Amino acid sequence: MDVRRLIELTGADFFTGVPDSQLKALCNYLMDTYGTDPKHHIIGANEGNCTALAAGYHLATGKVPVVYMQNSGQGNALNPVASLLNGQVYAIPCIFIIGWRGEPGVKDEPQHRYQGTITLKLLEVMGIHAFVLDKDTTDADLIRQMEVFKRLLEEGESVAFVVRKGALSYKSLTSYQNRNQMTREEIIRHVVSVSGDDPVISTTGKASRELFEIREEKGQGHSLDFLTVGSMGHSSSIALGVALQKPSVKVWCIDGDGAALMHMGAMAVTAQAAPDNLIHIMINNGAHESVGGMPTVAEKLDWPKIAEGCGYQKAYGVSDYEALDRVLQSVKEMKGPVFIEVKAAIGARENLGRPSTSPIDNKNGFMEYLNTCL
Q1: Suppose 50 and one of 16, 70, 71, 275 were both cysteines; which one would form an S-S bond, judging by CB atoms 3.0 to 4.6 Å apart?
Q2: Angle at the Cα of 44 (from 21 to 206), degrees rounded to 5?
Q3: How far is CA 101 from the centre of its chain?
Q4: Residue 175: what pLDDT?
């Protein structure tokens, strides 16, 4: 189904969400139509943030907003859905459009499988009425369902379209790029050349995939690394937990801008816990690249100043390999926590693979390695 027809039938003119590859047609349509005009389209930090934004829009206009997300974002949205939108509280109506990753019977990555099995159950528990949209959904099906949904929305209920793979189509005019020169994969290669035998925690998405392939290329094995394949935005907190329990070991976190934005308060907690052995590296390409390339607001922020304000001992910003190498060498011998923002281009190798080890194997190997560290 052409995504434009879905949007037309919702009647909505305000959209907010976190991008998802399963919703690429919708994301590209919104960028082509509205860009990031905040009157009509805001790419939020996390799905709870988006749900609250949608509530504010409804309070100001009386109209029904749309929140889009991958189903992994249901957890972030749960609190405002249950304690803000719900009919026993404010009865604020909202239309959710949710990409169904890990759908039972459809091959997907390990981090999506359990989430996929509970997607519809979670919506039921949250009191959100759902309709599954697939390749065979007709215009007539959608019209009938919207009639049902409109009555529910008028009563202050929320509803959801759960989108199966390939259900939506759209030919986009949008391409995503920036002016930065360094590539994320090469940045990570420079990091591991300095980190040596130190443990590394990497964020979800392409960064972990690239780290895995760099280790393969070097024949180093994977016990040094914890690849955070899910739980977007939490790699720095995982790294903090490791660093606090292994104070004699330098711990490196490779983070992304979208992930850092998603749970930005973690930076304040990290800085105040003050582990002097933690190096937090955020690769900033200003994009949700792993799910299509839609922009984040991260490129417009002064991240070193934010880190300093949170209480990091030192904070740096670099945009070329020479500066990167110089800073990496200096922080290895420095007391932290230290924050480094590294500006990167958008893009990755087309033949970039995925980890061939399971998350359980990765965890066990990493823990065994940490047990050898004093």
Answers
A1: 16
A2: 40
A3: 14
A4: 83
**In this structure, are residues 162 and 119 in contact, taking their beta carbons and an 8 Å threshold?**
yes
The structure tokens listed for 165 are 């793979």
CA proximity to 336, closest of 356, 316, 320: 316
DSSP annotation of 117: H
Strand pairing report for 251-256 and 314-318: unpaired
Residue 7: how many other CB atoms lie within 10 Å = 19
133: left (phi over 0), alpha (psi -120 to 50) or beta: beta
CA distance 355 to 289: 18
Instruction: Give the tokens for residue 300.
Output: 């417009």
Give the separation between CA 45 and CA 273, rounded to whole angstroms: 24
- What is the Cα–Cα distance from 175 to 177, expressed in whole angstroms? 7
As a whole number of angstroms, the distance between CA 35 and CA 346 comes to 18
| Residue 341 backbone dihedrals phi, psi, to 5 degrees | -95, 130
Phi/psi at 320 (5° precision): -145, 160
Residue 250 DSSP class: -
Q: Dihedral (C-alpha) 187, 346, 23, 257: value to the nearest 10 degrees? A: 50
Model confidence at 292, in pLDDT bands (50, 70, 90)?
Answer: confident
Give the DSSP H or E segment for 256: strand 251-256
Nearest alpha-carbon partner for 250 in 280, 229, 228, 227:
280
Q: Give me 150's structure tokens.
A: 């409109």
Q: Would the pTM of this model clear 0.85, i.e. be above it? A: yes
184 and 210 in contact (C-beta within 8 Å)?
A: yes
Q: Which two tokens stand for residue 66?
A: 């749309």
Tokens in use for 241? 């937990």
pLDDT tens per residue, range 237-279: 999 999 999 999 999 999 999 999 999 999 999 999 999 999 9
Quote the CA–CA distance of 155 and 171 in Å, as a whole number. Answer: 36
